[in-house]
Structure formats: structure tokens, C-alpha cells
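Exercise: predict the fold of this chain.
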Amino acid sequence: MVSEQDQQSKLDRLATALERARIGEYVELSQRPLRLIYLSFLSGLARGFGIVIGFTVIGAAVVYILQRVLSLNLPGISRTIADLIRLVQQNMVR
């Protein structure tokens, strides 16, 4: 049979594992659905804001690089990039 000391040791390890997994916070959130909705809404806003900022920075860098390549005046590439930049600028005006 398992001794009482072994059982206490296993129970302590289980308690430590649950504390590390933050199960208590999850249970608290599940008991307060409005707080869960609020936190989910805020995290969605932050994620969306990050995506918009990231896409803007990357898009601006791509347009900048394309303009630099265009200034090199390479025959085939320059015409294609000029058309692409013209399309982007037309869509930005709309």
C-alpha cells in the first residue's frame, strides 16, 4: 500500500503543477463571463491594431524598395514596378 507520506508528496507535486498551470485563474475567469468577454475583446483589439501597424510598416518598406529599384531604370523590371506603384497609388486615393 501507498504510505501517507507518498500520498502527501504526490499531492504537493499536483498542487505545484496546478499553480504553474494557473488553473485557479482560469476557473476564476470561467466564473465571471463578463470579465472573460471584456479581456477577449481587449486582446482582439490589440491583435488587430498590431496587424494594421505591422502591415503598414511592411507595405511602406515594400513600396520604398520598389521605388528604389525603379530608380535604377532596369528595362523590364522598371516598367512592371512602375505599373504596380501606379496601381497602389490609385487605390490609395480611393
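Check your answer against the key: The chain is about 90% helix and 0% strand.
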